[in-house]
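Lab notebook page, bench 4
Experiment: in silico fold of construct C2
Operator: M.H.
Input chain length: 293 residues
Purpose: comparison with the prior construct
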Amino acid sequence: MDWDDVRIFLSVARSGQFLAAAKILGVNHATLSRRMTALEKALSAQLFIRTTTGCILTEDGNQFLVAAERMETEMLSVQAMLGQGVAGISGTVRIGAPDGFGVSFLAPRLGELTAAHPELRIELVPVPRSFSLSQREADIAITIERPEQGRLIYSKLTDYSLGLYASKSYLEGNPAPEKVEDLRQHRRIGYVEDLIFSPSLNFTSEVLRDWDATFAISSAIGQTEAVRSGAGICILHDYIARSDPSLVRLLPEISIRRSYWTAYHENARQLARVRTVVQFLQDIVAKERRSFS
């Protein structure tokens, strides 16, 4: 059996589409389809059910997926062992992170990591959504909830807090709220409700029932910029907002607690570059723990 065919199978299985897998692997769609047909013939089994929108693993396909991932783990282990012995920490590691943490905290600090490991290439994808580690959308994911599914290795990165903020310019024309109910008299900023991908992001319900934002933005950084502009009051990450002197913390008795977690697929446990980046994340957060409390 050709390992390259197994690698192609894994990409198709994880993306759910022949075309998407072809783009990821940089091969011709017809060639990829032909290779999968040849693999099925070699195994005397149908691995996929082709549909107009993609493909679905058959029962045989799911069984082969388990075996293929074991093969992949062994290959990654060998590559990591050889790579570590010859070239040290090298290769590409993609980090998927919530945009607030990724842009405000990680981005200014990752240069320290790449300076220490010149052969290491970091891809930071800071967007307000979750990441699929099994489909290799990221090598390491920073999540806002403890992962519950999948063959993942995870650990808590840190707890953090959020609170109510407004800009000084906004408060010049609007008296600061003295109690929670006073928030109803103010312009409120929040997430786009039908795009909230995790219950942990539904901060507003813990503060005020029917928050009913007049300005909705599905980005923590976007919300911070909106508050800075004087657009209204919002629940912001303390570690981001407290560093801006133009922002004022309101109703300090209201504090929301959340956590960040690091997670990566167990198939990557032998990759020195992944372990190195995870350790770096743990170290820099531990060094600046007070910023998150």
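Observations: The chain has a mean pLDDT of 88. The radius of gyration is 23 Å.
Next step: discuss at group meeting.
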